[in-house]
Write a structure and sequence with these properties.
Largest sheet: none
Number of domains: 1
Number of strands: 0
Order of helices and strands: HHHHHHHHHH
Radius of gyration: 18 Å
Oligomer: single chain
Length: 217
Amino acid sequence: MDFAALKARQRQERDGHPTNLALRVHRALSWLQRAEKADDADGRFIFLWIAFNAAYATDIDPQYRLNEQEAFKAFLGKLCELDTQKQLGRLVWQNYPQSIRVLLDNPYVFQSYWDYQRGQITETQWKERFDAGKHRAAKALGSNDTAAVLGIVFNRLYTLRNQLMHGGATWNSSINRDQMRDCVKVLGDLVPVTISIMLDSPDTLWGDAVYPVVMDG
């Protein structure tokens, strides 16, 4: 599943979509297309993350806002509930179970490791949290809990996202190629499936898209 296939479907169905869904999908597809054109892993990851953001971000009253990690975990849970074709399940259990395990074993995409490096927690604390995270992931994998697995994986993706977006990594750095490769693989498969599930569920309440289109005059 790629941009071309999803865009062809969207063109056929978009006239029947609610405005907010149509805007989300249109934006997400535009960034997915840009990600597919990227010739470097760093750029591809950034564009894929923007595509995912375009799909899930919701404009709600500030007092009710979840933090970003909680927001995308809730969104992933919603996708899993709507995923009648089990597309997400196939990704997790068939396409890259080994990639997920490798990613979860990588301390460089675990935020507590960096908290330890900055002296905010002890070495024992970060290692205990790391082991606990892997235990939760193993339990979720063992019970076929797709939403829980994806939530844990996205914690790791979010750490890499922060490193890139806040200037905490060098472009095309030789020291982060392993985690970049694994994260691009996971996100590159997940974003198209996310868009597909949204297209399958036009009657679902997706909420107001952030920064709506405003026409002058």
